[in-house]
């Protein structure tokens, strides 16, 4: 999906950093909202924002991380990286994706993808059968440097 931009950024980093470029990372951050669930979710503490952070090795263009945090109205944060184990990452022309197995309920798996149209979609499966889908509209954001 973003391969051309990522390769151009990686090449620029390689030139700018010389030998240290192999350790450099490209970080893409997105904020998502307007979340819709199917079947509808009647949660008393609804998710009001989702933050995605994708980290890619500049030298190899391989995923290092795909972190997903759900922010509830109460202020509670649910991190998919804590909730799902055996996480895998992949990318193609249509989306950047991750998958994992639930830590608490090993029969549940999740696949999350941000597509080229700017939508983040999570699909939860129970024993291989689709249990629910959540879709959110996303925008790229710049991370503040500290």
Please provide a written account of the structure.
It is a single chain. The protein has 146 residues and is mainly beta. It has a single domain (3-141), classed as Lipocalin. It has two helices and nine strands. The chain has helices at 3-17, 80-83; strands at residues 25-38, 47-57, 63-72, 77-79, 84-91, 95-102, 108-115, 119-126, 129-141. It has a nine-stranded antiparallel beta sheet with strand order 4-3-2-1-9-8-7-6-5. The longest helix has 15 residues, at 3-17. It is globular, with a radius of gyration of 16 Å. The two termini are 29 Å apart.
Number of helices: 2
Question: Into which percent range does the helicity of residues fall?
Answer: 10-25%
Main β-sheet description: 9 strands, antiparallel
The chain-level mean pLDDT equals 85
What gap, in angstroms, lies between the N and C termini?
29 Å
Question: Helices, strands, pairings?
Answer:
Layout: H1 3-17, E1 25-38, E2 47-57, E3 63-72, E4 77-79, H2 80-83, E5 84-91, E6 95-102, E7 108-115, E8 119-126, E9 129-141
What's the gist of this structure?
The chain has helices at residues 3-17, 80-83, and strands at residues 25-38, 47-57, 63-72, 77-79, 84-91, 95-102, 108-115, 119-126, 129-141. The chain is mainly β and 146 residues long. The protein is globular.
Which terms summarize this structure?
nine-stranded antiparallel beta sheet; 13% helix; Lipocalin; globular; single chain; disordered N terminus; 146 residues; mainly beta; 2 helices
């Amino acid at each position: 999906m973003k391969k051309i931009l990522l390769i151009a950024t990686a090449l620029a980093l390689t030139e700018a950093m010389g030998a240290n470029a192999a350790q450099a990372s490209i970080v893409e951050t997105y904020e998502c909202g307007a979340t819709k669930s199917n079947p509808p979710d009647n949660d008393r503490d609804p998710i009001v924002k989702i933050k995605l952070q994708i980290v890619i090795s500049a030298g190899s263009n391989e995923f290092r991380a795909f972190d997903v945090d759900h922010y509830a109205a109460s202020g509670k944060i649910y991190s998919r990286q804590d909730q799902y184990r055996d996480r895998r990452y992949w990318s193609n022309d249509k989306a950047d994706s991750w998958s994992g197995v639930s830590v608490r309920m090993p029969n549940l798996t999740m696949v999350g993808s941000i597509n080229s149209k700017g939508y983040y979609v999570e699909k939860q499966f129970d024993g291989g059968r689709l249990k629910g889908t959540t879709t959110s509209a996303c925008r790229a954001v710049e991370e503040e440097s500290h």
